[in-house]
């Protein structure tokens, strides 16, 4: 009798543990963040995001691109940025500007496209996303 109860308990625990692992795998998403210093790199980054979205299927999550560094002023060039913004929106990519870089290089934040999010510190934001499990690369 003890063997029977032990066996049932063991089977029940195994099934519960397996279902919990499967549920966690189903909930997990592939999230990505790219830190770049060059605006022209947005095109290949967004193309990569599109490819990953297709490859990931249902497990595709968030994709953010953080722009920082001395060339950040280029994001205020409306003509140059418009095509990247349209590509990003179509691909489900969030464009993020580093507030620290904007301040350091005296870029008027009101000229940053409204479609872009501004974070206080792009490098810190990158690390925070990595701590949440985002896959990260810096270019």
From TrEMBL:
Q: Which UniProt keywords apply?
A: Signal
Give the signal peptide range. Answer: 1-23
Can you name this protein?
Sulfur reduction protein DsrE
User: Does Signal appear among the keywords?
Assistant: yes
What organism, scientifically named, is this protein from? Cryomorpha ignava
